[in-house]
Write a structure and sequence with these properties.
The protein is mostly beta strands. The chain has two domains: about 325 residues, Tachylectin-2, Chain A (5 Propeller); about 130 residues, no CATH class. Helix content is about 0%, strand content about 50%. It is built from one helix and 32 strands. A hairpin with a 5-residue loop joins strand 8 and strand 9.
Length: about 500
């Protein structure tokens, strides 16, 4: 197991892009001539915690396989890679077993092996493995990142290393993180496998590919062609794109999901040619920041990727799972959770005034004596809360041309006191509460296809909750109307 200082420094290295002013670097919405990106409607379902908290796990994109008996095997990694069994992708809270471990000193995987992608490959499973060497994770230390291919004949319980396939052209040096890694692998449905990777020398995303029939021979995209070798070759940057990637089968496009603080949240991008990406202009989830120096006032979303709920792969239909690692506000990396949302995509005939909606979910404790209404995951003391209702879908940015209100989530900040409420941003402190996070935006006035969102209070327990009913569904009294959200 790696120490927390090791984890924090590795994670901070991935998060260093936050301070570098990295542009979004994708094409404007609508630039894809064969698919109207502005016509895409995105609905993001409630966040469900499926694993955690862990101090020594959940340090890579989550990947999974559906087994012959219909159950699932998920893979979580942090230096070592672990397998977890469950009946579905929502059932990943069970015990773990180690299936990949760090290599011998001096090897390219001496610091660890993180399985980032697993896909069916004939009768076997092909794995993409992030590797690290030079394990000097202290201040002014260094490490080097590479990627390897592995294969398994027993659904990921044991692996045969087929060798390192992607390395950077830069050389390791003191005080630096070098190499190329943190890749996810996608079947492009064109006879090739594609790898979307983080280049540590400039924090850009690069892409490489290999023929599916020869998965150990990779070539990088460079100056318009796939001519450079995967080992030490040059690569042309394709932008800031994750590198969490998958394949949208219905529209034959690679899809990436990226935590982008300049964009304001988790960005969805699509590409028909595997290298030129177009953004959906509204975040899937808004964020207040991306602070990897933990603990921090804001929460943290990391390692987002997409999953097919039917088989665990990253080849998905229009309904799929968004999966990421989550650290709550005020918490450090000892409090890492695995979170899934269901994503529902649809294509309208015409561009939409608002594309993205995020579920504002009402949760209740097992005794139904306390409520939390939130767009974020239930963690810590709220981990056992149960979903009660989706009140509305919140906007993930302020709508252009219409009055709106930004809504914050507030709590008492006191251990053992579950009181939580929604308020106009800036209003938490005025009411004696602590601001937790941005919930989203609501229209100020009623619009077509919207429902009102009221803040209610259970007068017996003084627990506050959200409702679209001015009578608060008979559970309490209405305090005020916060605004109008998209109808569920």
């Amino acid at each position: 197991m790696r120490k927390m200082t090791h984890d924090a420094l590795r994670l901070a290295a991935l998060g260093a892009v936050v301070f570098l002013g990295w542009p979004a670097a994708a094409q404007p919405a609508g630039a894809d001539s064969d698919l109207c990106i502005e016509c895409l409607q995105v609905r993001v379902g409630p966040p469900v915690v499926v694993r955690g908290p862990f101090p020594d796990e959940l340090d890579a994109p989550f990947t999974a396989l559906r087994l012959d008996d219909g159950s699932f095997r998920g893979f979580s990694a942090n230096g070592s890679t672990y397998a977890i069994e469950g009946e579905s992708l929502w059932d990943m809270g069970g015990p773990r077993r180690e299936v990949l471990e760090a290599g011998e000193p001096g090897q390219e995987n001496e610091c660890g092996r993180w399985l980032t992608s697993a896909m069916r490959y004939g009768d076997a499973v092909l794995g993409f493995v992030h590797q690290e060497s030079i394990c000097d994770y202290g201040p002014q230390g260094q490490t080097d990142k590479t990627m390897a291919i592995a294969i398994s004949s027993d659904d990921g319980l044991t692996w045969t290393d087929l060798g390192t396939v992607i390395t950077g052209p830069d050389s390791p040096g003191p005080g630096t993180t070098s190499g190329e890694g943190d890749c996810t692998m996608v079947d492009g449905a064109d006879g090739y496998l594609y790898a979307y990777c983080l280049r540590n020398s400039d924090w850009q995303t690069i892409v490489a590919r290999a023929q599916a029939s020869e998965p150990t021979a990779w070539h990088k995209y460079h100056q318009g062609d796939w001519t450079q070798p995967g080992l030490d070759g040059q690569a042309t940057a394709i932008g800031f794109l994750g590198p969490g990637a998958g394949y949208l089968k219905d529209h034959e496009r690679v899809v990436t999901v990226t935590v982008d603080p300049w964009f304001g949240g988790v960005r969805l991008s699509l590409s028909a040619d595997k290298v030129s990406f177009v953004d959906v202009e509204e975040p899937l989830i808004p964020i207040d920041g991306s602070d990897w120096n933990r603990p921090a006032d804001t929460d943290l979303i990391a390692y987002p990727t997409i999953l097919n709920p039917d088989n665990g792969s990253n080849a998905v239909d229009m309904r799929f799972l968004l999966s990421y690692i989550y650290v709550p506000p005020g918490q450090g990396f000892e409090s890492r959770y695995l979170v899934h949302h269901e994503i529902d995509l649809s294509v309208n005939d015409d561009p939409l005034p608002v594309q993205a909606g995020l579920a504002l979910t009402r949760w209740t404790d097992p005794d139904r004596t306390a409520y939390v209404t939130s767009t974020g995951p239930m963690t810590g003391e709220r981990l056992g809360y149960r979903q009660d209702a989706v009140v509305a879908y919140m906007l993930t940015v302020a709508p252009p041309g219409l009055d709106s209100v930004k809504i914050a989530e507030c709590s008492t900040g006191s251990a053992g006191e579950p009181d939580h409420l929604l308020a106009e941003d800036g209003g938490c402190e005025n009411q004696g509460y602590v601001r937790e996070r941005t919930a989203g935006w609501l229209y100020l006035d009623e619009q077509p296809g919207t429902v009102p969102v009221y803040r209610c209070v259970d007068e017996e327990t003084q627990s506050r909750f959200g409702s679209s009913d001015p009578e608060c569904e008979g559970r309490g009294a209405m305090e005020l109307r916060l605004g109008y959200g998209l109808a569920p």
